[in-house]
Amino acid sequence: MKKSALQIARAAYHPQLPIVLTGGVKMKEGEPTQSAGDQEEIKKLFPNTYGLPEIIFEKTSATGSAKPVNVGVILSGGQAPGGHNVISGLFDGIKHLHKDSKLYGFLMGPGGLVDHQYKELTADIIDEYRNTGGFDIIGSGRTKLETKEQFDKGLEILRELDITALVIIGGDDSNTNAAILAEYYKAIGAGVQVIGVPKTIDGDLKNNVIETSFGFDTATKVYSEVIGNIQRDCNSSKKYWHFIKLMGRSASHIALECALQCQPNVCIISEEVEAKDMTLEEVVDYIADAVVARSEQGLNYGVVLIPEGLIEFIPAVKKLIAELNDLLAAKASEFAEIASEDQRDWVISNLTPDCAATYQSLPAGVARQLTLDRDPHGNVQVSLIETEKLLSEMVGKRLEVLAAEGKYEGKYSTMHHFFGYEGRCADPSNFDANYCYGLGYTAACLIASGVTGYMSSLRNLTFAPVNWVAGGIPITMMMNMERRNGHVKPVIRKALVELDGAPFLKFAKQRDEWKVGTCYTYPGPIQYFGPAEICDQPSLTLVYEQKRRKY
Questions:
Q1: Number of domains into which the chain is organized
Q2: How many CB atoms lie within 10 A of CB 132?
Q3: 278 vs 270: CA distance, rounded Å
Q4: Is 78 within any annotated ligand binding site?
Q5: How far is the C-alpha of 542 from the C-alpha of 536, rounded, in Å?
Q6: Annotated binding residue at 441?
Q7: Is 249 annotated as a binding residue?
Q8: How many angstroms separate the CA atoms of 416 and 33, rounded?
Q9: Is 202 a catalytic residue?
Q10: Does one domain contain both 133 and 196?
Q11: Cα(284)–Cα(273) distance, integer angstroms
Q12: Are 304 and 419 within one domain?
């Protein structure tokens, strides 16, 4: 591939490893674990991989391995900055174990394993992709690994290539699939280890051991740069209200981090909306109040941040979506045969009275979007719902009412933005470059330790990388039972914004000042070179959560 000057310079960057991984390592086991919820149900479903201990790696004088190991790797789900560094760290890790170890990449996600589409990843290929964004080294996909037929088909190619370990780089759904695959291969004695790596820009794959998912740091810095640019434009022209929707289907971590970075006038946090049992109208009133308050100071402009998944957190709409999920899962073929002009009436007639009333109250376009095709995991494709336009239009109508009552005399013009794909394939920040490389290298150490059903883990992330703690946790430790696509299934529990957590409390303490004043900050682009305090800072979310500063 042709490289830019920046990419050439970035190729020379050497990610920093935790000091514990720079020689021989040995595994230290902690206490047995249990799942995040529904312990008895999860234990029954995962008898071979449940209750395993946490693992921490320590230095040892022994190095290398007696024989080479063949490893497969899969990039699963949406892209996230740093995926290539996970693979390069994994490659270097298994080569450190034995120089003749081989790495095979399955193409276009889990489907490549099932369809036997792969390529060997050699040093010359790996070197082309170090410290670059994207997943284009092998591609990604959203095929779910959930059937015995798929598992057995995948095992055929694993045995043909003599692969004894498979690394799945993905989010909560992908790592749930990794846990199921690990359990199946362990149960039948397949001799294949399965290791997961925590990936998602949404930031909702974490717990006290997985401190953050990779890609979150880079993506939020990309979004914060563009939000800052819009705020500067907004403060220059002084005539538009910018409604900005940000990625984050099931949690508001991205919106919260960008708010902490940029200090917009309004940022809606979905988890707070749900906790306060707010209606859509109340959310609209909250934004309209900010517009009115600023107009009274002659400020007819502002910036509003909106999480992608907001609509799912409004309690009445959330209940409606859950009922729609079950309805459309149970009657998918019947719904497909209904003429498009009759689908609204069909849906209303098949809902309970409360949900039918909620459905009828929504604008036709939004109601229609709630019945669109689901993703492979049965979720509403909330990125297709233009929440930013819905809210800006409803705010405009509310302002018309207030103007008629003599309570508003300002001007209201709007602009709309959705920042999503812009951040998913950016070149990783120094933090993500180091973090991802370390996660891949740690996965190699987990393979060398002979474990399966584990997720690669690095901790102490607000310190310098040399001081990070490397290890792994059983994937079952993060799981509970949830209703998905009409069925109760074991899944990794999503980590939502904690309203009593330090990041949200920091935001809540300042937002009233931001609402009325013009307190914008302009983070600027990601810095790859320069002083550590500029280049190597982790996200503010991570800093506040860990309650200690880095460097």
A1: 2
A2: 24
A3: 10
A4: yes
A5: 13
A6: no
A7: yes
A8: 46
A9: yes
A10: yes
A11: 11
A12: yes
**399-404: long-range contacts at Cβ-Cβ below 8 A with a sequence spacing of 24 or more?**
399/288, 399/291, 399/292, 402/288, 402/292
CATH of the domain at 511: 3.40.50.460
How far apart, in Å, are the Cα atoms of 279 and each of 116, 318, 351, 360, 446? 49, 11, 20, 15, 47
Task: Using the structure block, give the residue that is written with the tokens 């819905």.
Answer: 390
- The one-letter amino acid at 205: L
Query: Is there a single domain that holds both residue 211 and residue 228?
Result: no
Q: How many CB atoms lie under 10 A from the CB of residue 450?
A: 10
Tokens in use for 508? Answer: 């809540």
Backbone angles phi, psi at 516, to 5 degrees: -95, -35
Q: Two tokens at 37? A: 């919820």
Beta strands in 69-210 (DSSP E): 70-75, 102-106, 118-120, 165-170, 193-198
pLDDT (0 to 100) of residue 51:
97
How would you classify the pairing of strands 53-60 and 24-32?
antiparallel
Has 93 been labeled as part of a binding site?
Answer: no
Task: Flag whether 248 is marked binding.
Answer: yes
What is the pLDDT, as a whole number, of residue 551? 36
421 is in an annotated binding site: yes
Kindly name the residue from 202, 217, 432, 536 that is annotated as catalytic: 202
pTM of the model: 0.93
The answer to whether residues 397 and 511 belong to one domain is yes
Average pLDDT per consecutive 10 residues, the chain (551 residues; last block may be shorter): 85 95 94 96 98 96 82 97 98 96 98 98 97 97 93 98 98 96 98 98 95 98 98 97 93 98 98 95 96 97 96 90 86 88 92 93 80 64 82 95 96 97 96 98 97 98 96 98 86 96 97 97 95 93 78 36
State the Cα angle at 502 between 212 and 521, rounded to 5°. Answer: 85
Q: Is 526 annotated as a binding residue?
A: no
Domain that holds residue 90: 55-215+428-479
Helices (H), 370-526: 387-404, 421-424, 430-448, 502-516
Question: DSSP alpha helices (H): ranges in 188-314?
Answer: 216-237, 253-262, 270-275, 280-295, 310-313
Q: How many CA atoms lie within 13 A of 175 on its CB side?
A: 29
Residue at 163: amino acid letter: I
Residue 278 annotated as part of some ligand binding site: no
Report the pLDDT value the prediction gives residue 550, as an integer from 0 to 100: 44
Q: Is residue 513 part of a domain?
A: yes
Q: Which residues contact 449 (CB under 8 A, 6 or more apart)?
A: 27, 55
User: What's residue 7's pLDDT?
Assistant: 87
Tell me: is residue 130 an annotated ligand-binding position: no
